[in-house]
Amino acid sequence: MRVVMDATAAVRQRAGVGRFARGLLTGLAEIDTHNDYFLITTGRHRLTLPATSLPQRHHWVRLPVPERIARIAWERLRLLPPPASFVPGAKIFFTADFALPRLGRVPSIPTIHDLSFLTHPECADEGLRKYLSTEVPRSIHAASAVVAVSHTTARALQELLGVEPAKIAVVPNGVDAQFRPLALTDETPPMPPFGLPTGYLLSVGTLEPRKNYVRLLQAFAKVQQRAKPAQSVTWPRSKPSSGYTLVIAGREGWKFEPIFREVARLNLASSVKFMTNTSDSDLLALYQHASAMVFPSLNEGFGIPPLEAMACGIPVAASTGGALPEVLGDAALSFDAFDVDGMSAAIERIMQDEPLQCTLRERGTRRAADYTWVRAATEALQLFERVAA
């Protein structure tokens, strides 16, 4: 079977859709030795997949057209030729993204990561919201099947867009194998990366309204006000004597300006550090040296960062927004995303309660181990074969 995949996100987007696309590709490469995959990309490659991660049955088809122009031509104007036409004998077209191009008779499958553009329109970039509000329903109607990354997203598709349950397949995200606990020794205390102090609190995600960073900053300010100088400093993850440091790792997205204004208003410039251009190796180091992670998002279709932190042995406090309770289960300390006081209390517990930290580390590593790209690829391959039959 010849599977055509729009792999543009895999080589152009670091987080979110791009991480799903890369992970699924590596998982399929590991389990599928029979089918051929033709990976169509547009635009300049910003990221590369290791050559050894994809076998010979994966073929790159690089089209010399900018990504934006390709999307306008295929998705909005519905122009020919469609991407699947570049692969004679294509049996199925799959995209890790939300929208489908015009494909004629080739069975097609888009991936819906969340419906926050409908549930939280005030948090979305207006242009993207309008685009998705049009293209997602159209693509779902044209599709042979639809991938949802969680059961929460699958239910949202049924309730908000009327998609038949039989048309939806849940293919969850996985955790990359590189995310693992730091190897510790008594002789060589680990040094935090990038000049950060020991014992920092970490949050990961794009700087945009849905990630709820303004409320996180308000909650963190309350914690700082109540923080007392530490009586002793123990390695490796301990509270610094001057209070806590919050590290926020994520690129600047849309409507991010209020986040920096809130830092100034709360006088947190000395205790909040932003890292807006982190590679995967940078992110691994940030996870491994953190005392804890807080994930305050208003809504998530899945929520990869807290699982990655758990895989690294870091205790996690997360909101109950969207699919997070489904994905994290009892392996995270939960709070209401809109409750600043509740969030600040959760931060204090995750940073100070050592028995809780131990419990969450143990539960978290087990939970993260359940989410592998092989598992995701197995679900996806079963769907491909069913749709192509």
Written account of the structure:
α2 (17-31) crosses α14 (373-388) and α10 crosses α13 (354-369). 39% of the residues lie in helices and 14% in strands. It folds into 2 domains: 2-174 and 372-388, Rossmann fold (3-Layer(aba) Sandwich), CATH 3.40.50; 193-369, Rossmann fold, CATH 3.40.50. The model is unreliable at 230-241 (pLDDT under 50). It has a 6-stranded parallel sheet, sandwiched between helices. It has a 5-stranded parallel sheet with strand order 3-2-1-4-5. It has helices spanning 8-12, 17-31, 67-76, 116-119, 126-142, 151-161, 213-226, 257-265, 280-289, 304-311, 324-328, 340-352, 354-369, 373-388; strands at residues 2-6, 36-42, 58-63, 92-95, 108-109, 111-112, 146-148, 168-170, 201-204, 246-249, 272-275, 292-295, 316-319, 333-335. The longest helix is centred in the middle third of the chain and has 17 residues, at 126-142. It is built from 14 helices and 14 strands. The protein is of the alpha/beta class and 389 residues long. It is globular, with a radius of gyration of 22 Å. β9 (201-204), α7 and β10 (246-249) form a beta-alpha-beta unit.
How would you briefly describe this protein structure?
With 389 residues, the chain is α/β, with parallel strands linked by helices.
Primary descriptors:
alpha/beta, single chain, Rossmann fold, 389 residues, 14 strands
Question: Which helices and strands occur, and which strands form pairs?
Answer:
Elements: E1 2-6, H1 8-12, H2 17-31, E2 36-42, E3 58-63, H3 67-76, E4 92-95, E5 108-109, E6 111-112, H4 116-119, H5 126-142, E7 146-148, H6 151-161, E8 168-170, E9 201-204, H7 213-226, E10 246-249, H8 257-265, E11 272-275, H9 280-289, E12 292-295, H10 304-311, E13 316-319, H11 324-328, E14 333-335, H12 340-352, H13 354-369, H14 373-388
Parallel strand pairs: 1-2, 1-4, 2-3, 4-5, 6-7, 7-8, 9-10, 9-12, 10-11, 12-13, 13-14
